Amino acid sequence: ALAGSVSGLSELQFLLLSGNQILDCGATALSQGLSSVLKLQQLDLQCNRIGQDGWNAIIDRLPLCTQLSILNSCRACSLLLAGDCKDLDLSGYEMGFAATKFLSRSSSTLKSLDLRKSGLGVEEWSALGESLKSCVCLAEILDFGWSKSVLAHGVTSMDLDKRDIGDLEAVVISALLPRAASTLSVLQLCNNNISDDGAMYLCQSIKLLTELIFLDLSNNRIHDAGANWIAVSLTHLPCLQKLDLANNWIGDPGTEAISGSLRTLTRLQTISLSRNQITDCGATALASILHLLINLEKLDLKLNRIGPEGWSTLLDVLSLCSNLMSLNDCGSYA
Hints:
Helix 12 packs parallel to helix 13 (308-318). The chain has helices at residues 2-6, 24-34, 52-61, 77-82, 96-102, 122-132, 147-151, 167-176, 196-206, 224-234, 252-262, 280-290, 308-318; strands spanning 14-16, 42-44, 70-71, 87-89, 112-114, 140-141, 157-159, 186-188, 214-216, 242-244, 270-272, 298-300, 326-327. It has two domains: 2-68, no CATH class; 144-327, Alpha-Beta Horseshoe (Leucine-rich repeat, LRR (right-handed beta-alpha superhelix)). The chain is 36% helix and 11% strand. The N and C termini lie far apart (80 Å). It holds the Pfam family LRR_6. One of its GO terms (molecular function) is GTPase activator activity.
């Protein structure tokens, strides 16, 4: 009812509806009237129950409100809509969906972005990531303490060990990694909380890192599905010398997928798959390609579920790896 009345209030300047029970359908209905409220200066819909569909309907109409300067108590709304911003503070105002829509307008100027407590989830950050890719001057995202090291121009090494990185953060990192595609040689994402979904997003960009020498995803929560994504990315990393996937939940299907990709990585020197869920089947798959890795110096498969049959198959092949110096962290192997 209110939505229908709004369209007739051509002189309306302030519409404050925060802290109610508005859902997507109510927000969509309200959006239909916004195009008639040309003098609207402030719109506040914070703390309702509006989801992505409802916000998208509202945001699609915002460019028609040419005098709008404040959205959800955020005075940076007009800057976001106008574009060419350098420092953009959208924190704490449920402005994430608006940022996803309009951030590209500042792609050539934006240096600092603050979206803390903005209500963005994995799906929204994924959409926002497409805009972030084009923000060539961006130096910091205040939501993430590690962003400066990822955004640095010409970066050759990213150490993101123990940074409490989960799937949401993985989405953001994936959006930013292409900036370092021609320079990055070391990517360490160990000791975090990345699951299969996070691995999927990351690997879409990892495959672009053609100069990568060391990839470390150890001590995360990656299962076989994530290992399959890793396997796809490995085929695009011809310079890779060290791969660490220890202490995850990778079983035989994931090991088989990774083994299929390793056969082309002839520069590989170190493989660590310790503390996973590999059995004899996975060990056999890995054994079938080890003779192709002529530079392999270190192989770590300890604390899996490999039995006598799997180890026997591996040891038969390892005798062909003339450069192997360490097996299961035992430097006396050679």
